[in-house]
Amino acid sequence: MDRPFELDERLPVWTALSELYLDTSFDEADAARIAARLRQSPFSRSEIEWILRHEVTPAFAANLRSVAGEWVPWTPQEVR
Description:
The chain has helices spanning 7-18, 28-39, 45-60, 62-65, 76-79. It is mainly alpha-helical.
């Protein structure tokens, strides 16, 4: 990614994308809510995909492999 790292810009994106790794059901309303938050970010679609693959997935994917994974959304402080 060519954009300089800005925590204030990334944190809302990380928080939204972290919900993909909760041990809960996921429906159209969830997808629409997350998409709306991502559209508010300054990042392009390809930048968001890069953030998902390289920043969010390594931090949160293990939750899906856990027998008792987290189901309550992480706070921005936890995501940070």
